[in-house]
Amino acid sequence: MIQNKDDLKHYLEMDKYALNRNGHCNLLLSKDLNWKFQIILRKHEYYYNTHNTIMTKIYGYWHKALGYKLGFDIPINVFEAGLHINHFGNIVVSPHARIGEFCDIHQGVNIGKGERDDKAPIIGDNCWIGPGQSYTVGLL
Questions:
Q1: Phi and psi torsions of 47, nearest 5°
Q2: Rounded to 5°, angle at Cα 122 from 117 and 125
Q3: What is the CA radius of gyration of the chain?
Q4: Integer CA distances (angstroms), 59 to 48, 69, 73, 138, in order
Q5: Once rounded to an integer, what is the mean pLDDT over residues 79-106?
Q6: Is the pLDDT of residue 139 over 50?
Q7: CA-closest candidate to residue 92, choices 68, 61, 116
Q8: Which residues, 6+ apart, have CB-to-CB distance to 61 below 8 Å?
Q9: For residue 65, how far is the Cα from the chain centroid?
Q10: Binning pLDDT at 50, 70 and 90, where does residue 135 land?
């Protein structure tokens, strides 16, 4: 979880590495919408976790708006560093799920909890998550 500016920098650098991107983590200069979404996601996490109410609202709005445009419903504080969203398309993740470092996720994925169970999945590090797959995972 991102708790300070050093954590934010680390998460952005690991995400950039996972996405094989070069250059700075500049929100305004990036033309890659998936990378823009990840920058906004990480900054939303940072401002939320450091209790900066105004910036949380601003980044929360951008997070929701760009997520809607791309088909992502990815809440804050779920993915550890090294997130790799391959391309836009429907991705839905429960806010109660916990996913480790270097997750490579594709469109058509729903990570959530069942109707009869109130426990969300915990997925470890270095995972590939794509459509049409079924996994047995640990539960929180």
A1: -65, -35
A2: 165
A3: 14
A4: 9, 15, 15, 31
A5: 93
A6: no
A7: 68
A8: none
A9: 15
A10: low
